[in-house]
């Protein structure tokens, strides 16, 4: 049966919860990713990771994604929709509290770096409230934003959404050099295209390699938090 929470009925969810199911919540953003990638890129990656986790492990349900995040650094580019850190922290906190009315275990999977501080604070608060929450922050090697890494992953996920004829290079400096500038003036202060890196050499195979690595990291993270043997009675 479909691993999506939204496709289930409440009695079906209840049966899985009784056996110890994990709710996986993808957390992404709606923000510019250069002239060649869709605004949904971070959300697409987070959803993919959760679905791959559910496909390989019994007893994982995937929640509808949180598609708005803390993306203020991308202000000034059309289409970016940011709810800021305070609102994101509160959203994750209240969503988590609601989820724990049903689920004993909740995993948040965030694929947007700008979400990290807010989501970490929210999950820490949930854990402080004695709720069995866990957070996975997707991290991968490569350029900072809308460059080879993210473009390759989108090519692996859905090549039809990548505007190959609109690919342009952006600021090539590593993130550690750009961070002070990004914090003071946002992405627009260092690039007019919204790209940090060079997507021109992106390819789907590289994207699959990056995604496989993220999935492997996620599986290890979940296994450390909740060993699969604990879910032996769960049927998907």
Structural commentary:
The chain has a domain at 5-141 and 211-230: Creatininase (Rossmann fold). Strand 1, helix 2 (41-56) and strand 2 form a beta-alpha-beta unit. The termini are close together. With 236 residues, it is of the alpha/beta class. It has seven helices and four strands; from the N terminus they run H-E-H-E-H-E-H-E-H-H-H. The longest helix has 22 residues, at 204-225. Helix 2 packs across helix 5 (148-157), helix 2 (41-56) crosses helix 7 (204-225) and helix 5 (148-157) crosses helix 7. It has helices spanning 10-18, 41-56, 84-99, 116-128, 148-157, 175-185, 204-225, and strands at residues 22-27, 60-62, 105-110, 133-137. Strands 2-1-3-4 form a four-stranded parallel beta sheet, sandwiched between helices.
Keywords for this structure?
disordered C terminus, alpha/beta, Rossmann fold, four-stranded parallel sheet
Layout: helices, strands, pairs:
Elements: H1 10-18, E1 22-27, H2 41-56, E2 60-62, H3 84-99, E3 105-110, H4 116-128, E4 133-137, H5 148-157, H6 175-185, H7 204-225
Parallel strand pairs: 1-2, 1-3, 3-4
Helix pairs in contact: 2-5, 2-7, 3-4, 5-7
Largest sheet: 4 strands, parallel
Tell me the number of strands.
4
Radius of gyration computed on alpha carbons:
18 Å
Strand content: 5-15%
Could you name the CATH class of the domain at 5-141 and 211-230? Alpha Beta
Q: How large is the count of helical segments?
A: 7
Measure the end-to-end span: 6 Å
Order of helices and strands: HEHEHEHEHHH
| Basic shape | globular
Instruction: Name the CATH architecture of the domain at 5-141 and 211-230.
Output: 3-Layer(aba) Sandwich
| Mean of pLDDT | 94
By CATH's scheme, which homologous superfamily of the domain at 5-141 and 211-230 applies? Creatininase
- List low-confidence stretches: 231-236
The computed structural class is alpha/beta
Helix content range:
40-55%
